[in-house]
Every structure is written in C-alpha cells, then in structure tokens.
C-alpha cells in the first residue's frame, strides 16, 4: 500500500513539474541532435516521449528496496533507452508524422509511429521498470499476499 501512495505522490509531483521534466529531456535530445548534425539544423519537431518518461520516473522513484546506486543506474539506463529511440527516430524520419494518414507521411512512417505510440510509450516504461526492479517486485508481491509471505517464511525456516 505504501508503494501505491509513493507512486501517486511521485506521479503528481512529476506531472506538476511536467514542463521542467520535458524541457530537461528535450534539451539533451537537442544537444545530441546538434552534435550529430554538426550544428547544421534544421532540428526536427520532438516526439512526445518526454510525456512517457514521467510514469517510468515515478515507478522507479517509488519502488521500495532499490539502493540509491541501483535507482540512479535504473534512471540513467531507462532515460538513455528513451533518448536512443528518439534519436534513432529523428535520424530515420526527421520528424513525427501528422496524426492523419495521407498528410504527407509515408505508410511506413505512419505505421512506425503507431507502433511507437503503443509499444514505446505505454509498454516501454513498464518494461524498463520491471527490468530495473525485478528483485524488488518479487518482494513487493510476496509482502502484499499474506499467504505467500507465510509460505516464504516457512520455506526459509
């Protein structure tokens, strides 16, 4: 129950600071794009991955039992995954397509964006969190089920 309260608290805090979180995320993307293109813009419009890092950040920050080092490495690894995917998207497509099919985007670009919208924006934050906190998740699930906790204690004795 404490995990859910912490998750709610971190989520509300991060959504309240959403503009700052997005600016930080996009600043690093812009810097990388500047260095990769050797300063010769134009720089593309941003994908909205900055919105999707908020659930990932909240999940990692709220997870009980993560050491500070593990938490920091998890945050850096997860953010690096989002940045790498966005940079790759920029290098391949240049800009996100419009939401309507037939507005100048190729079908491949449109399908990729739909896939990224589903997999990257909704599955990736949870998948990265599971990878980062798989041990703690097992403990969290065991501690929330009284029968499982009793079984675990009995097997340890």
Brief summary:
The chain has helices at residues 2-16, 18-36, 49-62, 68-93, 107-132, 134-144, 146-156.
Our Rg estimate from Cα atoms comes to 19 Å
Sketch the topology as an H/E string, one letter per element.
Answer: HHHHHHH
Helix content: over 70%
Structural class: mainly alpha
Return residue spans where pLDDT drops below 50 for at least 5 consecutive residues. Answer: none
Give the biggest beta sheet: none
| Count of separate DSSP helical elements | 7
What average pLDDT do the residues reach? 78
Strand content: under 5%
* DSSP E strands, number: 0
Could you say which overall geometry the principal axes of the C-alpha atoms support? elongated
Terminus-to-terminus distance:
27 Å
Number of domains: 1
How do the helices and strands line up, and which of them pair or pack?
Layout: H1 2-16, H2 18-36, H3 49-62, H4 68-93, H5 107-132, H6 134-144, H7 146-156
């Amino acid at each position: 129950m404490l995990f859910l309260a912490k998750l709610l608290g971190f989520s509300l805090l991060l959504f309240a600071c959403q503009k700052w979180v997005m600016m930080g995320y996009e600043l690093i993307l812009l810097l990388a794009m500047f260095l990769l293109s050797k300063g010769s813009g134009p720089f593309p419009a941003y994908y909205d991955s900055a919105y999707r890092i908020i659930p990932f950040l909240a999940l990692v920050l709220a997870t009980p039992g993560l050491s500070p080092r593990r938490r920091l490495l998890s945050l850096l690894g997860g953010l690096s995954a989002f940045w790498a995917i966005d940079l790759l998207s920029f290098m391949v497509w240049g800009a996100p397509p419009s939401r309507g099919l037939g507005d100048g985007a190729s079908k491949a670009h449109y399908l990729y964006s739909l896939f990224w919208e589903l997999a990257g924006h909704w599955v990736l934050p949870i998948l990265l969190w599971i990878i980062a906190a798989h041990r703690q998740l097992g403990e969290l699930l065991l501690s929330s089920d009284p029968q499982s906790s009793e079984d675990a204690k009995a097997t340890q004795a």
